[in-house]
Every structure is written in structure tokens, then in C-alpha cells.
């Protein structure tokens, strides 16, 4: 990694990365099979299922609405009450949806799975990255943070490979049982080994009545949100990166919400093809995020890496939208290994533009901007994809919705291009770690 990291700092970071790897592996195991399970439960003996597309889009829309509020609040709470309890809460919520499908895969259980997964994703999507990034910023100085963010996202890619390898090797009936076991191990590891990095202040309100405590809690959250908004709006860098994140997530969330159903309908892809693509992407992403990103970032900086990643995302969307043969999705997946660098480069830009005491708040607000994009995307992508996959399409281009997503990604690239090149705009140095 860039910068000097002591053995103690590395040990603390490893105790964060290992349970995250277990958690993401368990989550990834179900990705390649859920399209088949949903289609079989809601539309038996059919390869195309509008109900499955719409329920997936509805889930993503509700998650996006709730994340707009939940992620910034979780970021604030992580600054005030510690990273560890928030990470434990987030990771634990994923146990229940997997447990439902481990019991049964019938129609009623599939509906219950989507309800519980919706709650889990409201808590986890985006927030686990921003809190993990704040955790890394607590223990590392500014020179090492970008590389650490690359390692956090690289661990996600490692988990993608492991999760899809397990999904490829295990019979479908055992995937969710193994997933539940891993999802229980992850929070248990955190309870035992994860070190808290935030120095907590004594609770001065413990003797207040419950009504006064509730009022004080709402008042504190409102004040904290206003302060966080002030921090972001007073920084041209943070305002611009929020727009980048909004348009990027609008495009990529829209693609991810319909991609498997589009590939299943257009090329009759199943669990095996999905796993092959995801494993290929995962292996390449490990190299780009954990090895190439720290090196390239030290040479050209986060802004250049961000622009390259966004160009790759536009190419990815166009290739999938115009896919003319079953090998094109495999080729297009190569660009996913590059555009995945958008996340660590964004985290690094936000961290450099924020003070050490505001890491959770600013990371949370940027993730909130992403959530707005992920809320809006299914409103367009789900009906548009369903329309162009049907026999009533106005013209023959089944991937037209993915081409539309490329325009949102082009907007993200525009704002990344005009992103200010100024250094930290706050008065406090962000080079020193919070946990020294």
C-alpha cells in the first residue's frame, strides 16, 4: 500500500476485511440463482417473467427511497456512537432473507424473501461501504486511505469470486443453507475481534425521561443532518462528486436491476452462465482494485481514475444494450473490471475533502445521493425493459433500456470531467488518522 502502515494498523484493518469478505461471499452466493428461483416461483415453465422484473424493480425503488434518509443517518450515527455497532446491525439483517429461502422456495416464501431483502438492503446497500471507508480513515493517514479503499472494494471482488464459485459447485438446494451459516459467522467474528475506532463521549442524557430522550434524539439528528449538508454544500468538490455518484448509480443500478432478466430472455442464460461471468469479473476486479488501483492512483490521482472508470461504464452499457451474440456479455464484462474503480476513487476524493471527524457524515451523504439515483432508475428501467422484451416493442432492440442507462453514465462522466482539482477545502488537515 501507499504510505507507511504499522503492524497494528494492518491488524485492525484485517479484522474489518475478513468479516466483510465472509458477509459479501454469503450475499453473492444467491445472486446467480435468484433470477431462476423467482421466475420458477412466479412464472412456472416460462423463460420471460414480467412479474419477476417488476418485483425486482419495486424492491429497488423502495430501497432507493428509504436509503436516501437511512444512509446519511447511519453515517452520522457511526460518527457519534461508533463504527462497530452500526456494522454489526447492518451485517446481521442479511441473515433473515436467506433463511427464508433456505426453508422453502415456493411463491409465498419468495414474496417474503423480497420483503426481508428489501429491509436488509435499506440498511446495508451503500451504508456498509461508507462506514467501512470511515473506519479505514480512522486508522490510516491520507496517503494510505486511497489504497485501503481499493482493498475494501477488492475484498468485495474476492467475495464475488468465492460466492459464485460456491454457487457454481453447490447444488441449488444447499446454496441458501451455506449462505445463512456464513452470515451468522460474520457478525460473530466482528463481536469478538473488531476494534472500535471512535472515542465515545459519555451519555449525558441517560437520566432524562423517555419523551425528552426521543425529542433530543430527533433534534440531534436534525442538527447533525443540517451540519452535514453544510459541509457538503460548502465544498465544490463534494457537491460535484455527489452529482457524479447520483448519475452513476442511476445508470448502473438501472442496469443491474434488469440485466439478468434481459440476458435470460435474450440468450437463455441460467445460473451457470451468470456465475461464469461474475467469477470472471471478480477475478479481474481483485487485480484492478487491490493491485492496479493503488499504483495508478499514486501516479495520476483519484480524479483521472474516476474518469477512466466512467468511460468504461459507458462502454459496458452500450455493449450489453447492443449485444448481438451470446459471447458479447462475456466481452462486455471486461469493462466491468475497470468501471468498478469508480467506488474506491470516489471514496478517496470524499475522504480527502472531509475532516477526520466528518468522515461518516460526508461518506453517508454521498451514498445518499447514490440512493436517489438507485430509486429513480427502476421507475424507468423496469417498464422499459419489460416493454422491449415483449412482442409489443416498437422496434427490435431488446437492450434499449441499457442504452438509455448509458446516457446517465455520460452525465456522470461530464461532472467527473469538471470536478475541481483543488486539494482539501476544509481548514483541518485530513492527513492524520482519528485513531493514532
TrEMBL record:
Keywords: Membrane, Signal, Transmembrane, Transmembrane helix, Transport
Native source species: Solanum stoloniferum
InterPro entries the UniProt entry points to: MFS, MFS_dom, MFS_trans_sf
One Pfam family, short name: MFS_1
Protein topology in the membrane: Multi-pass membrane protein
A cellular component term, taken from the record's GO annotations: membrane
Source superkingdom: Eukaryota
Signal sequence region: 1-28
Residue ranges occupied by any Major facilitator superfamily (MFS) profile domain in the UniProt entry: 16-423
Protein localization: Membrane
Membrane spanning stretches: 86-103, 115-136, 148-167, 173-194, 277-296, 308-327, 365-388, 400-419
Family recorded in the similarity comment: Belongs to the major facilitator superfamily. Phosphate:H(+) symporter (TC 2.A.1.9) family.
CDD domains: MFS_SLC46_TetA_like
UniProt name for this protein: Major facilitator superfamily (MFS) profile domain-containing protein
Amino acid at each position: 500500500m501507499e504510505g507507511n502502515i504499522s503492524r497494528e494498523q494492518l491488524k485492525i484493518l484485517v479484522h474489518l476485511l475478513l468479516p466483510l469478505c465472509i458477509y459479501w461471499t454469503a450475499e453473492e452466493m444467491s445472486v446467480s440463482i435468484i433470477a431462476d428461483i423467482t421466475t420458477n416461483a412466479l412464472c412456472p415453465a416460462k423463460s420471460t417473467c414480467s412479474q419477476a422484473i417488476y418485483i425486482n424493480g419495486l424492491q429497488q425503488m423502495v430501497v432507493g427511497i428509504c436509503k436516501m434518509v437511512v444512509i446519511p443517518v447511519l453515517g452520522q450515527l457511526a460518527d457519534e456512537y461508533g463504527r462497530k455497532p452500526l456494522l454489526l446491525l447492518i451485517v446481521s439483517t442479511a441473515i433473515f432473507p436467506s433463511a427464508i429461502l433456505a426453508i422453502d422456495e415456493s411463491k409465498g416464501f419468495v414474496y417474503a424473501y423480497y420483503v426481508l431483502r428489501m429491509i436488509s438492503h435499506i440498511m446495508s446497500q451503500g451504508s456498509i461501504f461508507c462506514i467501512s471507508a470511515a473506519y479505514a480513515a480512522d486508522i490510516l493517514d491520507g496517503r494510505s486511505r486511497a489504497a485501503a479503499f481499493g482493498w475494501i472494494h477488492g475484498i468485495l471482488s474476492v467475495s464475488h469470486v468465492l460466492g459464485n464459485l460456491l454457487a457454481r459447485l453447490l447444488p441449488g438446494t444447499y446454496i441458501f443453507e451455506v449462505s445463512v451459516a456464513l452470515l451468522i459467522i460474520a457478525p460473530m467474528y466482528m463481536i469478538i475481534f473488531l476494534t472500535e475506532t471512535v472515542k465515545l463521549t459519555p451519555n449525558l442524557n441517560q437520566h432524562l425521561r423517555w419523551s425528552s430522550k426521543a425529542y433530543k434524539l430527533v433534534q440531534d439528528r436534525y442538527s447533525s443532518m443540517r451540519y452535514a449538508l453544510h459541509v457538503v454544500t460548502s465544498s465544490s468538490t463534494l457537491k460535484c462528486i455527489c452529482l457524479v455518484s447520483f448519475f452513476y448509480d442511476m445508470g448502473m443500478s438501472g442496469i443491474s436491476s434488469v440485466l439478468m432478466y434481459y440476458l435470460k430472455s435474450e440468450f437463455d442464460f441460467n445460473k451457470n452462465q451468470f456465475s461464469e461471468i461474475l467469477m470472471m469479473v471478480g477475478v479481474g476486479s481483485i487485480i484492478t482494485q487491490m493491485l492496479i488501483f493503488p499504483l495508478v492512483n499514486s501516479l495520476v490521482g483519484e480524479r483521472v481514475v474516476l474518469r477512466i472508470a466512467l468511460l468504461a461504464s459507458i462502454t459496458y452499457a452500450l455493449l450489453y444494450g447492443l449485444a448481438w451474440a451470446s459471447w458479447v456479455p462475456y466481452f462486455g464484462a471486461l469493462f466491468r473490471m475497470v468501471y468498478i474503480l469508480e467506488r474506491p476513487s470516489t471514496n478517496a476524493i470524499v475522504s480527502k475533502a472531509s475532516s477526520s471527524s466528518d468522515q461518516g457524515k460526508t461518506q453517508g451523504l454521498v451514498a445518499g445521493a447514490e440512493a436517489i439515483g438507485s430509486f429513480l432508475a427502476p421507475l424507468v428501467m423496469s417498464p422499459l425493459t419489460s416493454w422491449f422484451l415483449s412482442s409489443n416493442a416498437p422496434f427490435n432492440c431488446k437492450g434499449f433500456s441499457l442504452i438509455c442507462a448509458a446516457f446517465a453514465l455520460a452525465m456522470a462522466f461530464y461532472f467527473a470531467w469538471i470536478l475541481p482539482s483543488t486539494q482539501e477545502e476544509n481548514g483541518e488537515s485530513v492527513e492524520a488518522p482519528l485513531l493514532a
